[in-house]
Write a structure and sequence with these properties.
The protein has 447 residues and is α/β, with parallel strands linked by helices. It contains 13 helices and 19 strands. It has helices at residues 74-83, 103-116, 135-140, 163-176, 187-199, 205-211, 214-231, 243-254, 265-269, 272-278, 291-302, 339-350, 354-368, and strands spanning 5-14, 17-26, 29-34, 43-46, 51-54, 56-61, 86-91, 120-126, 145-149, 180-183, 235-237, 259-263, 308-309, 385-389, 393-394, 413-414, 417-423, 426-430, 433-434. Strands 1, 2, 3, 4, 5, 14, 17, 18 and 19 form a nine-stranded mixed β-sheet that branches. The protein has an eight-stranded parallel β-sheet with strand order 6-7-8-9-10-11-12-13. A hairpin with a 2-residue loop joins strand 17 and strand 18. Helix 5 runs antiparallel to helix 6 (205-211) and helix 7 runs parallel beside helix 8 (243-254). The mean pLDDT is 96. The protein binds zinc ion.
């Protein structure tokens, strides 16, 4: 057979386990996965024993474009994704200006992505007060789902939902067959506790963490599960940080509700001690948890009770990361480059099979969000894959692709590194460098 490209000598991480195979690509699609593929005229990539993972699908990033390109941007953000082994990302509807809350905004953002994105992308729409009637047009325009906040979002442009908006919005999202992505923290609890602590003059790491306790997450998850039962709305719980919340979601699943859950690498690799030590680079919402909670979350992940892992890459201008008052500092971790590497670190520490890592980072999000041709190293799927070499890599500012080099991950050593990333058969990142012709992004929609 004549193919465009063949990867030879790979340890391919397939849904059935790691296999020593060749992978042939034609017209951007995986054409054959076989023990020895004979071909003539194809470009040969010698994997030399490197692992080949399906390109990661990061269903939660904030690239802040249009309107806040000084925080990140599609060009730098998507190159960062490629450098981290991610070939499809889902951009959130907030922190950009305007927020993505109408079909017109969604079309405009998709066009920016086509012009600037190194890899494929999907777009979340926003569920905010005053825009319920925009849900259906956004769904028809290709929104992957809809994001809502129960507590404040961190920017004035994207309002959290009141209960009526949430219920009406969930009914409307259910009617379109889409999924609600929910930031689950109780506004009543978090704003009350923040007020009490600020009145006492407490604004440090301990105070910030105390203002967003595990109960705030559990209460919001519990309440939304009741609403899901009443409205029939599928719900995806984003950046869940506690085993307590995972347990509630698991019970809802067992009952037959259409719910899923993601956590982020920072909740499993880091703890509240890191917020104390490193300050605002480690500030996020929900906050990093104490060690015993971190360990319980890792146990829940390994037990298979968490569907997927996403980065929640949420950077800002460096001046917004303040050390004098953590409540006033921007909350968000810049870590989009490190999801796959972070999960591989966890895999080596806890003897987790690599196909489980491919499930959390690629197959599960593809399945959940209806991307039929993504997330697996299988014939007929898009040729999105990553070569990973098992050599340690210490994160330096020079090797970070995010616009700003302020990250919790600076100085962190991973046991593996991304060697090259291919999007639909084209190299988009190789050995520390972005590919020459970097633009390969198209809007992906559920099918
Ligand atoms: Zn987020």
């Amino acid at each position: 057979m004549a193919y465009d490209m063949v990867i030879k000598g790979a340890k391919a991480v397939t849904p059935d386990g790691v296999k020593e195979v060749d992978i042939a690509v034609q017209n951007g699609i995986i054409a054959e996965v076989g023990s020895v593929i004979e071909t003539s005229g194809a470009e040969i990539i010698q994997a030399d024993g490197k692992y080949v993972f399906p390109g990661a699908i990061d269903c939660h990033v904030h690239f802040n474009e249009p309107g806040r390109e000084d925080w990140e941007g599609i060009e730098t953000g998507s190159q960062m994704m490629a450098a981290g082994g991610c070939t499809t990302y889902f951009d959130m509807p907030l922190n950009c200006i305007p927020s993505t809350v109408t079909a017109e905004h969604l079309h405009a953002k998709a066009e920016l992505g086509r012009q600037k994105s190194a890899v494929d992308f999907a777009l979340w729409g926003g569920l905010v007060p005053g825009h319920i009637e925009d849900i259906r047009p956004m769904a028809e325009a290709g929104a992957i789902g809809f994001k809502a906040f129960l507590s404040r979002s961190g920017t004035d442009e994207f309002r959290s939902v009141d209960e009526r908006t949430l219920l009406k919005g969930m009914a409307e999202i259910a009617a379109t067959g889409k999924i609600l992505a929910l930031h689950a923290e109780s506004d009543a609890l978090t704003s009350y506790l923040q007020m009490v602590l600020a009145n006492e003059g407490k604004v440090d790491a301990d105070a910030y963490a105390a203002s967003r306790p595990e109960e705030a997450e559990a209460e919001a998850v519990y309440r939304t599960i009741q609403y899901a039962r009443v409205t029939g709305c599928p719900v995806h719980f984003v950046h869940i940080s506690t085993a307590k919340a995972v347990r509630l979601i698991r019970e809802a699943k067992q009952e037959g509700l259409d719910v899923s859950v993601e956590t982020c690498p920072h909740y499993v690799l880091f703890s509240h001690d890191d917020l104390r030590e490193k300050g605002s680079v480690a500030k996020c919402a929900p906050p990093l948890r104490p060690r015993e909670s971190q360990e319980a979350l890792i146990e829940a992940l390994i037990a298979g009770h968490i569907d997927m892992v996403s980065s929640d890459h949420s950077p800002c201008r460096p001046s917004l990361k303040r050390e004098d008052n953590l409540f006033l500092s921007w909350g968000g971790i810049s870590g989009g480059q490190f999801t796959l590497l972070g999960m591989l670190e966890l895999a080596l520490e806890h003897q987790i099979p690599f196909e489980t890592i491919a499930e959390w980072t690629a197959a599960a999000p593809a399945r959940r969000f209806g991307l039929q041709k993504k997330g697996r190293l299988e014939e007929g799927c898009d040729a999105d894959f990553v070569l990973v070499s098992m050599e340690p890599y210490t994160v330096t500012r020079e090797s970070m692709f995010a616009k700003h080099k302020l990250s919790l991950y600076e100085g962190h050593t991973f046991p593996s590194r991304i060697s090259a990333t291919y999007s639909k058969g084209r190299c988009v990142y190789s050995d520390g460098k972005k590919a020459k012709e970097g633009i390969d992004g198209t809007l992906v929609v559920p099918s």
